Amino acid sequence: VSTQSTWELERYLMEGSYHKLLQARKQVPSNEYIVFLNMLLDTVRTEIGDSCTKAYDKLSVKGATKLLMFENTNDTLKWAEKDNKWVKHGDYFHFTRQTEAEIRQMPFNDIIMNHLGYAHEMERIV
Fold first, then answer.
1. Is the pTM higher than 0.70?
2. Distance of CA 25 to CAs 35, 46, 64, 106, 120, Å?
3. For residue range 54-79, what is the model confidence (pLDDT) as tens digits?
């Protein structure tokens, strides 16, 4: 297994080229990569989803499917059930706005732990 694939994944993540991560999942050099790529893609979707809840008051299910890189709306609906911020009314997800205190609060520990986790996983692969 080549380390080239690992470096490409890291580059895609740093660039924000999430669609390339999705493509990489379809072209894995070895089956061992699939588990890691699924975790990575789920993390990316979570980050995109968090951004959506802050950027939009509402978002169509179709639009969310495209943003979250799902192949169909059923997968989007299943994913959205895990997050109580994603409330479906008709063909739209509605989001509640954060309070001033929540906006000011930065989850530094979560960010650091995520980055350390990525670094550890990349190191294990290499």
1. no
2. 10, 17, 20, 31, 19
3. 889 999 999 999 999 999 999 999 99
